[in-house]
Amino acid sequence: MAKQKSAVKLGIFIFIGFAILVAAVYLIGGKSSLFTSTFTIKTYFHDIQGLKSGTVVRLSGIDAGSVSDIQIVPDNTGRVEVTLNLVTDVRRFIRIDTKASIETDGLVGNKVIVLKLGSESAPLVKDFGYIEGEEPLGFGAIIAETQGILKYTKLMTKNLADITNKVNNGEGTLGKILNDNELYNSATGLTKRADSSLRSVTNELKGITGLFDTLGTGVRTVVRNIDRVIGNVDSIIVSVKAGKGVIGQMFVNGSKLDTSITNTIQNVEKITSDTRLAASRLADNMEALKHNWLFKSYFEKRGYWEAGKAEADIDAKTKELNDKIRLLDQKIEQLKKIDNKK
Amino acid sequence: MAYIIEALNVCKAFGSNVILDDVSCQVGAGENLVLFGKSGTGKSVLLKCIIGLLTPDSGEILFEGKSLLNLSLKELNEQRKMIGFLFQSAALYDSMSVRENLEFPLIRNFKFSAADREKKVKDVLEKVSLENAIDIMPSELSGGMKKRIGLARTIISEPKLILYDEPTTGLDPITTKEISHLINNLQRDLKISSLIVTHDLMCANIVADKAIVLNEGKIIFEGKLEELTKKEDKFLKDFFSPEEIQHNSGSSNG
Amino acid sequence: MADDTELKGKGLLKRFFETISNLSLFSIRFFKEVLLPPYEFAEIKKHMYELGVKTLPIVSVTGFIIGLVLAMQSQPVLKRFGAESFLPAMVSLSVVRELGPVLTALIFAGRVSSGIGAELGSMRVTEQIDAMEVSAIHPYRFLVVTRILACTLILPILTLYVNFLAVIGGFIAMTLTESINLQFYLNSVADSLKFVDILPALGKTFIFGFIVGSVGAYKGYNAENGTVGVGQASTSSVVLASLLILLVDMVLVKVTVLLWPT
Question: Does the ipTM exceed 0.85?
Answer without folding.
Answer: no
